[in-house]
Description:
two-stranded antiparallel sheet
Amino acid sequence: MMRRFLITLSLCCFAVTSVLADGCCECATKSYNPFFGDFRHQVALNIGAGIDSGIIVPLPARFVPFAELHVQYSVPSTLFYFPSRLSLNVTQTIGFGRRYGWDWDDYSIPIIYLTKDVAFAHGRNWYAGMGAGGGFQVAENDRIGSKLVFTLKLFAGYRINERATTEIYVKHFSNGNTAPENNSYAFYGMGMTYNF
């Protein structure tokens, strides 16, 4: 338990310190950023299907009646010369039934959080990487027993045109074992980004 907490805390600290080290946005956009191309702002709309899993990167098994509707606003950034984006996120989790002993209706809770997504591999029309961040869910519950949440995401994107990109992802939310209840949320999802 403590090991998971330390890993999650380290990832969040890493993301926050990289934001502080970035300096101005002008510096972050001097090299090509596959998230943005020639633009400096991005909005995204994603939808994800819930997985009942207590591991950080869940396998696509044990799907549950739980979903997320996610919106995001992002600006360009860097992390040790890797192109990245800094994002403000709002996720509405939506439960609609019982499965595997959990009443998923109880977890229909908004989550507001900041993330740093880094493209560790990319070409002109594609990218893949990882993101991490932290924030708050509006209410604690018997699955994540705190308002404080951390997130980790793996993703890949393909540019449709200079403004629009489609992305797929797997995302994990937990409280990093900062409370006794830490059964996590996990989602497989897809969505669209629009640059302007």
